[in-house]
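Why do we bother with a discrete structure alphabet at all? Because it lets us treat a fold like text: something you can write down, compare, and reason about line by line. To make this less abstract, here is a complete entry for CFA20 domain-containing protein. Read it the way you would read a sentence in a foreign language you are learning: slowly, and without expecting to understand everything at once.
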Amino acid sequence: MFKNKYQGGAVVELFCAQGNDPVAKWKLSGGAIHKEYNKEIKGFVYCLDGSSRTVKMQMPKNGKKSLGLLQRFLVFQVNIPPDRDFSIELMVTDTDHLKRRLYLSTVHKKLSTTLWHAMIPLVALHHKIWLTLCIDLVSFTSKLFKDVAYVSLDSITVFANCRMRRIFTMRAEPKGGDEMFLSGGGLMELIPRNFHFPQDTKHMAQVLNMENPTNPEVRANPENNRNADKQVMVPGRWIVLKYNLVFSKKP
């Protein structure tokens, strides 16, 4: 779908809840998906409620086709209800020309991998707040599957339960270097201004990536004492969920 389209800009937009038919390119399953106006963000969102196994939205509609997305980071602007499960399934192609499945879910309690897929626990995912949730596809692919590197993102499936505002990819050229970006300090600077949340909306950025288990360095951004790095230990790996709290002041 995007293979022959320009992807050299800052972002490639995949979903926006505004407009007449935001899900025209998505396959909706489970029935409990609807569009509603959200007062907190002063705009429309798509709501996925119900079973975390059957209620889902998938892109592309035709499972035999490929998205062909090349940028490193996949970003969701999402709000997850308290005490509810939430999952994301991603299909990626690596340098061995093999398709691998990344399944990130609050259902999983520990990391497990096979040759073809990885189940990644979202044990520290924040609920009941608007998130800019950023997934480092390069990091997950290279660390979870031996001797390969990330090439492209081929499909995205989002499962209940959540409120979805926007989905997009970002290129692998964060200002200030990866260290600043992955600590949350550079994330909001890279996102186009028209993608930002309203000024009086409480929100935060949370970045998911894999760290080398033999050298699990975790750095906080010293410029803001609200920044934090949260480490979650799972067998054989460090999953480092780095985030930056952003509370915008009302004018």
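What the structure line is telling us, in plain words: Confidence is low (pLDDT under 50) at residues 173-177, 212-251. The chain is about 5% helix and 45% strand.
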